[in-house]
Each structure stands twice: as C-alpha cells, then as structure tokens.
C-alpha cells in the first residue's frame, strides 16, 4: 500500500514531445542517445517506451509518442526509437512533398493546404494498422483541437478503455499532425461511431508538458502500472519530467517587415511566433513549479531544445540536405550536453 505521508521509492517518469513537423528528427536523435545509454547501462534490449510511465506529444511529438507505445506480444515496447527515425528519414520526403507548381501558386497555404494528406495517411495505416489507443503499453496524452465543438481534444490511453473514447492510433496520429495550412483537418470516427473534425494540438499546446503534468495528476499509477512503489495521483515533487523540443526558432521579425503587413504577410510570422511562444511559456511555468521544491527535486525537470544550427526551421523541409542538417543539430546537442543526458539515463533506471 502507498504511504500516507507520500514518500515513495519511485517517481513517475514523464516524457513530453513538442510538435515541429520534420524537425521531429532532432527529437529522435536525442532519444536515440538516451536509449543507447539505457541499453549500455541497464538492459541490452532496452526500449524507451518501457522507461516512462506517461508519454505526451503534440503533432510530430504525438506520432513519436505513439511509436514508442506500440505493444509487442508481451505488452512491452515493440519498437526502438530507431523505428521513428527511419520513418522520418526514409518517408519524410514523400510525406512532406510539395510539388513545384504548388510552391509557386500557393506558397503559404493561402489557397489550399500545402501538402496532400494521402501519403501521410498511407504511412500511418501501414505502420499502425488497426492498433487501438487502449492497447498502448502505458498512459499517453496526445493533443488535438476539435474545430466543430471549439475545444481541446486530448487522447489518452485510460479514457480509451471506454469504447466512447477509443480510437485507432492511425487516426489519433492523423489528428494531432493536421497542422493548419499544411494538412487538411482530420475527419475521424471513434470506435463508438462518434465523428470529429480535428486539427493539430500544437495550436494550443505545441509544448504539451503542462498538459502531461495535468494528466499525470489524475492517474492512479500504482494501480495502472501494478507497482505499489509508484505514487497514485502524483504531485510535482513525485515526477521526473523530460521535455524535448524540436529546435529553437529565433528568426527575428523587424518593425520594417511587419509594418502595414496584411493577413497574408502575417501568416508565416504568426504561426512561427505562436508555436515558439507557447513552448517558451510552458517551459517557464513548469520551471517555476520545480523551483518551489527542495534542492534535489527541483532538478527533476529537464527541458531539451537544441539549436537548429544549419537546419531550416520550416516544418515541411524534408530535403535530404535538411534532414542531414537536423541530424547534425541533434548530434551537436548531445556533444555539448552529454552530462545532463547521462543524468537523465540514471534517473530513468533508478525509478524503473
């Protein structure tokens, strides 16, 4: 039984993954290093999905989260993070393909969505098949936004145990990645038969860490994970949160550029700034929560957001040159922050 004084031997390990389109490659590179260290120091067959108690994601982060939570026949993680990296590196160019004539007549998605959703839906169907949300190995929190009912639609594994809120994973991924001006809204149906029109959860939570924290607060983890050393309904000092961004975007917009700008000219800067501002604000809020804790617990929040270096900030730039630049940006971060990443690995193992 859990202690009433809320002292537990194990903390709840939360992984939160930002949106960012093809820039999710950076996330995969960081996670690959962490997984390799887990294999080196704990289990040669270690997979990330088995080392977190809750995984959250928006947009591209929701897709990566879903890959990590696919079950094998023993209800453990089926895939290594390498599988997600392969999907981006090998299929990214076809998923994000924008024909030259479309770039000329529709450069910002003003007339229509920039990218056809058909290739994305094909890849999601081939990868996830008829896997259901309720079949994930651990609790999840994947974001989207309901345009008809005008409210957030949050997909989570525990609600998925009820047929009304259970969905095919391929549809969840289609919904969370339906970035306005890039892909058409997703029109999906729950296993109960209810239909939804959904867009990318990044419109309100491109950094879903605060959503993940709120979700964790309502989960009886000891019961769900069948581990009495884990706390039910954890409070902040009972959580280890690893939040990973898809690269800092610091492109400046001068007064001269935006002066007298109309709706069309504002589209790209506005999307850029809204996504960045959301991520930065959530980081600030979570950091302030952890700053109220004791010396040791305040260090259990890790925000990882590499510089893009030579990579493009465009979410749909899936050229071979840019994919390589994104990989290099992730590797450069690892070189500069190996100590912190190794600390994360130790924490994941000790609270397994």
Automatic annotation (TrEMBL):
Residues 15-213 form the PNPLA domain. Keywords: Hydrolase, Lipid degradation, Lipid metabolism, Membrane, Transmembrane, Transmembrane helix. A motif (GXSXG) lies at residues 57-61. A motif (DGA/G) lies at residues 200-202. PROSITE patterns: PNPLA. A motif (GXGXXG) lies at residues 19-24. SUPFAM superfamilies: FabD/lysophospholipase-like. The chain crosses the membrane at residues 12-34, 54-71. InterPro entries: Acyl_Trfase/lysoPLipase, PNPLA_dom. GO terms for biological process: lipid catabolic process. Pfam families: Patatin. The active site is at residues 59, 200. Gene3D superfamilies: Cytosolic phospholipase A2 catalytic domain (3.40.1090.10). One of its GO terms (molecular function) is phospholipase activity. Belongs to the patatin family. This is Patatin-like phospholipase/acyl hydrolase. It comes from Moheibacter sediminis.
């Amino acid at each position: 039984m859990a202690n009433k004084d809320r002292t537990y031997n194990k903390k709840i390990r939360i992984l939160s993954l930002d949106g960012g389109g093809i820039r999710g490659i950076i996330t995969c590179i960081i996670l690959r290093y962490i997984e390799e260290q887990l294999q080196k120091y704990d289990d040669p067959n270690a997979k990330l999905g088995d080392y977190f108690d809750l995984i959250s994601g928006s947009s591209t982060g929701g897709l990566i989260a879903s890959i990590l939570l696919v079950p094998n026949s023993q209800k453990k993680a089926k895939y290594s993070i390498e599988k997600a990296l392969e999907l981006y590196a090998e299929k990214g160019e076809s998923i994000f393909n924008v024909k030259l004539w479309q770039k000329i007549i529709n450069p910002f998605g003003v007339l229509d969505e920039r990218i056809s959703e058909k290739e994305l839906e094909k890849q999601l169907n081939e990868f996830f098949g008829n896997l259901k949300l309720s079949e994930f190995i651990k609790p999840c929190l994947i974001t989207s936004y309901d345009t008809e009912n005008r409210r957030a639609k949050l997909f989570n594994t525990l609600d998925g145990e009820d047929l009304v809120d259970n969905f095919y994973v391929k549809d969840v991924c289609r919904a969370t990645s339906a970035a306005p001006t890039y892909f058409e809204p997703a029109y999906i149906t729950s296993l109960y038969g209810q239909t939804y029109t959904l867009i990318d959860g990044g419109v309100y939570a491109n950094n879903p860490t605060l959503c993940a924290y709120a979700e964790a607060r309502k989960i009886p983890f000891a019961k769900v994970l069948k581990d009495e050393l884990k706390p039910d309904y954890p409070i902040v000092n009972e959580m280890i949160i690893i939040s990973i961004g898809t690269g800092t975007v610091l492109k400046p917009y001068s007064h001269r550029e935006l002066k007298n700008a109309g709706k069309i000219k504002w589209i790209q800067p506005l999307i850029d700034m809204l996504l960045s501002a959301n991520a930065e604000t959530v980081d600030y809020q979570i950091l302030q929560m952890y700053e109220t804790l004791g010396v040791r617990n305040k260090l259990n929040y890790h925000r990882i957001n590499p510089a893009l270096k030579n990579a493009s900030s465009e979410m749909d730039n899936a050229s071979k040159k840019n994919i390589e630049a994104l990989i290099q940006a992730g590797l450069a971060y690892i070189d500069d922050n190996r100590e912190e990443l190794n600390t994360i690995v130790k924490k994941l193992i000790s609270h397994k």
